[in-house]
Amino acid sequence: MSLGQDDMVQDEGLQAVVLCDVFNQRFSPLTLDIPRCLMPLCNAPLIEWTLESLALAGVQEVFFLAAWHTSAIREYLETHHPRLLRPVGRSQANTSALTRASLIAVPEARSIGDAMRELDAHQVIKGDFLLVHGDAVGCMDLASIVQAHRQRRRADRNAIMTICTMPCAEHSRSRPLGDQSVFTTVPATSQLVHYTSVPGIPPKRLVKLPLELFEDASQSISGMGAELDVRNDLVDCGVDVCSLDVPPLFTENFDYQSLRRDFVHGILTSDLLESKIYIHVAPPAGATSTSSGGPWSTNVCGMLGSPAFGGGYMMRASDPVSYDAASRDILSGWTHPFSPRNGLPGGAIYKSLAGLRYIGEEVAMAKSAHLGNFSLLGAGATVEENAQIRHSILGRDVIIGAESAVSNSYIWDGVTIGRNCSINGCIISRGVRILDGVSLSAGTLVGEGCVIGPCVALGRNARISRHAPRDEDDWDDDDDGSVHAGEDNSAELGTSAQGYLWPPLEPRNGDDSDDEDEDPHECAANAQLYQILNDTEVQLTDDSLSSIDADSDAFVDSDTESDISSDDSIPSFMSARGSMSLTLPDGAESQTLGEKMESEQRLSEFRAEAEASLARAMEESHAPDNAAIELKTLRMASNVPTSEVKKVAIPFILGRCNVEQAKETADFLDHWGPLIREVAQDDQVEALAVMQSYCALNPSQMRLFVPLLKKVYNDELVADEAMLAWWKHPSSRRVVLDVPSQTQWSGSVSPEQIVLELRKRAEPVVRHIIESLMSDDDDDDSDDEEEEEDE
């Protein structure tokens, strides 16, 4: 096809392909009864999130590729989207261009590669298209990314794909543990030159890169200088912009099964193909960061520099852990304009309460019941006397019995939980009945229609289903949904139970860890990393404060050449991850003196303007949200790092606090605390370090630090996990702010010593957090002991 013909095809409208199946068992047994794309996320089916994203991108036609549950998907589309026109919401006009959809059944497909070959056989793709995983969620500006891809492709016909990614802070809940990606790119062009997918177990410290990459870099790839970026701080959004050439490439090579590990890796390592793949790095919506890319440049065929290009949040709810992270991100407002308060996909709107709590219509909640932060109650839910809901989402018509506690869990429509139950870190599917006195531990998945109890306690990572467990070779994650006979072990689930308790997610005796046929990402050991964890899974114990050291394994220099550990335990929350830039000498500095001076001037101007903006906001009593928007606008215009916003806003706020006037300071922080939460959300550990350093550098504010920590903890301005991660991080032991040259220090006391002293004073606060997070586990243990004594 000629270039002119390709341009003509684009005028027919943008197309999208949605992969409804992912061909793994990470959500089993839930997906035996419901297609993954119809699973609820904040009570809105994942397919609704997908359709909203595609509509905002200007997609006109969408193809759903489905191997299993095709009748359920077709029925849903016919019922809810007979014409695929987005319903008009209260806060948004119906501007969707999405008017056509087709469901392509691929029953013989057993991999994404098979599904793509079926797509190619249908010959329905007419030009560039969006390839979207059915579990991708967010509000990323896909339209501008498509435009940049098309412009790049006009100049270079070998540019076949743009992978959408999102930067993620070191301690973010959005960072995957069990399936990490390492992208090696040419930063001047955003061209991807190497890709590695790394399972969490066994843990790896080193990634091998081909020597050819550095030889090419030394010859100045694309004529833009000898530099490579090696990054594992990017979240794969599950969205790719593809050219018309992509489906035929799957047909030509039947070895391409997975999208990343086979197709992308195969394209990048092929000696025959000249195809090129690029990545787009976008900032999360609502964060104070901006895109590392920019408007497309015909001079370098790459992305250089605009803060307005391709921004937004998007990630995959590809396993229970990422499902949990995406849910919390939605409640935190990262998917704006879609939020419980403004309206979620599908039209549901919730009443908003302080502490990121949301209540649907006709909810019945006893006065003695407690609704904790990060919680959402679906329409018609009932919470009885003295029940506690914390960090959880309840679907429609859910009933929580008296004296029961639900934490860090997701309870789907129509579930009934009896009295005196403990549900922690679970996903419970539709129509399940949990009878009185049942305790379910972290990582538990309960399939549709099961009955559990009464008076039983199940351990971690339990899986319960109406379907009997079968050998892994006999079925896939999205099976046909029929109930199969098997050994009845319902007694372990209670005298009135209905269902099967599946084998635990543990390596079986005799398993060969070196089995070449086993996917290392889906093996039993690594699969544990996909399950929802307790809050205490940062691997801290009651006496952990004395064992958290900067010299621990988690903080070994990434450049070390020591042997990879053979420890197969789950890596800690602080396992070494980050980004690394490899620069080969080319005779010139990567940044000229003039560019450095210009950068310093921008930074100086930003600080001055940001402080003036904050002063005006406080004098005129602006809303914190408005102040945050103005700071974001200033940061985008100045093109400075996100850390600079924290280093300006947090000291400015704390500078207005008077430790001698406790009530006035508390009232002041009540009003301006949300601004701290806003500027801290992309890296809360860094925000805590800034608070500590500010108090250390200002002797009059030293006494403010511990009450401040208690305040940000009680008001949930930062997450519990972030507080513990800050204690463990080296930044809690050093000054992260510039030390004023005019500051006088008494005697021999240095700022670093004061930082260490403040960290010591914070120990009771951190210990309290650990004890409160472990209390649920202690309760579960005591219940187990009592049960054993009764036996």
From TrEMBL:
Residues annotated as domain W2: 600-783
Transmembrane stretches, start-end: none
Principal localisation: cytoplasm
Gene3D superfamilies listed in its UniProt record: 1.25.40.180, Hexapeptide repeat proteins (2.160.10.10), Spore Coat Polysaccharide Biosynthesis Protein SpsA, Chain A (3.90.550.10)
UniProt cross-references to SUPFAM superfamilies, sorted A to Z: ARM repeat, Nucleotide-diphospho-sugar transferases
InterPro entries given in the database record: ARM-type_fold, eIF-2B_epsilon_N, eIF2B_epsilon, LbH_EIF2B3/5, Nucleotide-diphossugar_trans, W2_domain, W2_eIF2B_epsilon
Composition bias, Acidic residues: 471-480, 552-566, 774-791
Record-level GO cellular component terms: cytosol; eukaryotic translation initiation factor 2B complex
Compartmental location: Cytoplasm, Cytosol
Highest taxon in the source lineage: Eukaryota
Molecular functions per Gene Ontology: guanyl-nucleotide exchange factor activity; translation initiation factor activity; translation initiation factor binding
Region (Disordered), start-end ranges: 466-521, 552-572, 772-791
Family: Belongs to the eIF-2B gamma/epsilon subunits family.
PANTHER family, per database record: TRANSLATION INITIATION FACTOR EIF-2B SUBUNIT EPSILON (PTHR45887:SF1)
Subunit note: Component of the translation initiation factor 2B (eIF2B) complex which is a heterodecamer of two sets of five different subunits: alpha, beta, gamma, delta and epsilon. Subunits alpha, beta and delta comprise a regulatory subcomplex and subunits epsilon and gamma comprise a catalytic subcomplex. Within the complex, the hexameric regulatory complex resides at the center, with the two heterodimeric catalytic subcomplexes bound on opposite sides.
Official protein name in the record: Translation initiation factor eIF2B subunit epsilon
Organism: Malassezia cuniculi
Gene of this entry: GCD6
